[in-house]
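Inputs:
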Amino acid sequence: MTEQGETGEIITILLVEDDAPTCWRLQDALVKAGYEVRSAGTLGEARSALAAGAPRVLLTDLRLPDGHGIELIRETRQRFPDTEIMVISALGDEESVISAITVGATGYLLKDAFPTDIATTVRDLVAGHSPISASIARFIVRRTQGAAQSSAEPPPGPALNTARLTPREIDILWGIAKGFSYAEIASHLGLSKQTVPGHIKNIYRKLEVHTRSEAVFEAVQQGLIKL
Amino acid sequence: MSEIAAKETTKAPERAISKAPTRPRRRLIASRLVPYLLLQALIVIATLLGLRLLQPSDPDEFALSGFSMRQDGVTHPVTLPHFTTSRNSLDDPPLYTGTFTFRRGDAASGWSVYLPRFSNAVEVAIDGVVVLDSRRDANANRPDRNTPQIAAIPSSLLREGANEITVRLFVWGPLKGFLDTVYVGPDAALRPAYETRTLLFVTLPVVFSAWQSILAVILAIMWLMRRREPVYGVLAAAMVIGVVQAYVPPPVPPAAASRLAAVLLASAPTESALVVMFGVLFFGWRWPRSGALLFVPGIVVFVVGLIGGPPLPRILFLVLGIPTVGLCLLLMAWVTTIAVVRRQDAASFTIGCAVTIVLVCWIQDMLTVLELVNNDRIFVSRLSYSAMLVAIGAGLTWRFARALNQVDSFAGQLVTRVREAEERLKASFVREEERARAAALANERTRLMRDLHDGLGGQLVSIVALSERGHEGATITDAARAALKDLRLVIDSMDDIGGDLMLALGSWRERASAQLRPHDITLDWRVATVQGLPLHPELRPWHVIQIVRILDEAVTNAVKHAQARHIAVTIETFDASEGPCGLISVTDDGRGFAPAGHGEAGRTGQTARGLRNMRNRAARCGAVLDLRSDASGTRVRLQLPQRFPDSDAAAG
């Protein structure tokens, strides 16, 4: 079985993960699902792999032996806007996932996810759906509220530009945070079930930092780089 | 205030003295009293010398001493100064007749007649024409004022050679009439002497009285603001009386006069009694009830004078008032002497010396009245008394100002101390806050430890054990997966969800779905009300952990033991008697299990432990767990409390 994109090409994935067993596990799951997988253990290897050509999907861990995955995500987003970027996380913690989103990631994958779930997540991503967890939705909504109530002390964690989110998008995030399914959210809000994943992808795009200076600023803010 | 402080300082030595034998006490008194008395003796000498200096000198070359006096129809020659013998002769006053020589060639300026001292009033005529009538100037007739008079003689009246001068002396007693030497000469020669006397006996008393009235106002205000200290009020009253006496114009017989004015002039006994009262209070003693007797003469003079009218007040004043003044002065001297012996402070010394001066002046005046000394009827006690009152008032004001300074510095100390106390309080508050934070952190750590120990710790140990025995595959995988799930649960529960349990359940739903997906079990999630569960502002992370673990346990049971195909989670809110109440149900379609005691032996132990854990956790956060199981499935109902408990009371 071979996974193919809308154009019928084989979907290529660049997997950047320094822990060998984890790398094997993910690679196995993806290869079994029919993807073409290249793997890299360091930031340097990932860069040379990228130099060879753009993958359809980039899956990257954040903490790498020779640098931070954030840099790789930012570079990839700038050089290959069409590449889907997903961050691999051990715990799916909001801070690392949100940091990745602000530089261009549109999804995340848990390292211990079941093989079928790994394949499904990548397929959904390529189909234009971004995965989001209840805790990440909660995190984003909390930032929106923190920005609205300027008198209240902002919650700890990375700053997030949520000003561009629409009320509908915030409603969707609330639904996810409270554990409602996409179908339930769609029926509550009077949307079609198919539009909810698109909204989520939009939310991710809106959270992404666009200009270079903004990126540097955000990175400094988040303590990812030091000037 | 300072009185109290002074009292304290005097008490201490007194107590010490009373314990000590009598002889040292006597010695102490003597050692203090003798120098003081010597000092007073010196002051007496100084006062007498001062009075001698006060005696003004008059231009003797223009003195007229040889007069003939006609009284009661009898004429005889007299030499001025002269006392009349009669006491009441207003209708036919004694008439002094003398001559002086005027030479027009000598007269560069006009001539005047100058009378340095007389009592009570005079009418001066030159060659039969009146040039001076002192009755028109009421103040000139007061015996205590020593007022001189001068009058210019119109040059048309003066004849070359001998001129006649007649002086009519009006006396309204009770003192004898007195006429000092009369001076007639060029105005330029007489006026300096007149002005010296005016300065000494008219201007100076007015200055003193003005000063006294200012002090009276100050002291009255002090007393009004500090009623607890009558000492100011008493002195203010004394000063007011003195000022009134100084400024009320005396009535001149036989003119119809206000009786009140006449009586006020005789207020000296009241004034002196007030001064004694002031002295007693000032030195911190109680004013004895019998002290009221001191006011009796003053009141008698006042009342009798009002009823009887003149000349009664004057007579009473002479026989009753003046001795009272003397008595008061002696009492005051006694009081100050005791104060000096006991306190040895500047105030008592000053007042004591002032009293001695007034006393000397009073005795001098008495001797003058009794004609035992001849000082031309110059009375000095009123003058010295005014000066003393001014000194006392100034001293009191100074003492008051010093007390204010003490209060200021005390206030300054208080401010410093309050600031220090504030600093200490702040520091202790910070310490307390730190301790509370540390305690909360320790509590949180204990709970987290217990949860990690129950879950993650056990699972990791199990992984270690399995891998050591060479196990592979599913068992290790399950244990590791459970460990990760637990880690996520603990991390997730630490997040601030603002009391909305739905947010925690949302994450749990994701984890549970992921857990069930490989087993092909569907998780049916039903939220009966839009809001889900009521908000619990008191919800803490450890409550969340307990609830989520109960739900985990229910799902794990359904998967592992009941072989369910379908699990439904229902979240609803029902209205209890005290408000909305959350209810979470987990229902499966498995084959159920028999409650402890009836089940199969192999499974009962583990299930029973799991159920006991669930009940414990529910009890810890005040929830009610209801569990029903039969062949058609199991239903776990968790009824949330109205309010989650603060402390982990049921922990164990």
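Chain B touches chain A through 26 residues (CB under 8 Å). Flag for discussion at group meeting.
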